[in-house]
């Protein structure tokens, strides 16, 4: 009888230790995706175009991963003053973006995106698209990034550079 109790206590102790170490590992993995004192971290960003579903202003749907050619993803919010300044800088430097397809991506409603495109004189430009996605899709594919964030991808869909937060246009242009 004593032997059975000792075995049961031993099994419970082993299970408790396994649970303890497993829960510590889960917490540290979660912490790696949180912003740090040095600034926000895009812990999920991979070296390829993300599997991010996008709904364009015309209602058509694409997945960022399927985009062809050199691509720039600009994550923004229409009411964000940093994003507005970034949009002005991009518009004033459109020549630098020749040969690239730009997608301005937000979780805002399509009418808000359309208004932003018009207001910042980016509507009707052949290589610029506005698209909607969800916050969950952004976090799952790119991680917790702040607006604006700019991701530059090569012709092969490989990440060339990422800029988290408002970035001087000269830095972005140096990655094109």
From TrEMBL:
| Signal peptide from the UniProt entry | none
> Which is an annotated Pfam family here?
AhpC-TSA
In this protein, which residues make up the domain named Thioredoxin? 43-176
Matching InterPro entries: AhpC/TSA, Thioredoxin-like_sf, Thioredoxin_domain
Keywords attached to this Swiss-Prot or TrEMBL record, sorted alphabetically, are: Membrane, Transmembrane, Transmembrane helix
Q: Does the keyword Transmembrane apply?
A: yes
What residue ranges are annotated as transmembrane?
Answer: 6-23
Asked whether the keyword Membrane is assigned, the reply is yes
Q: What is this protein called?
A: TlpA family protein disulfide reductase
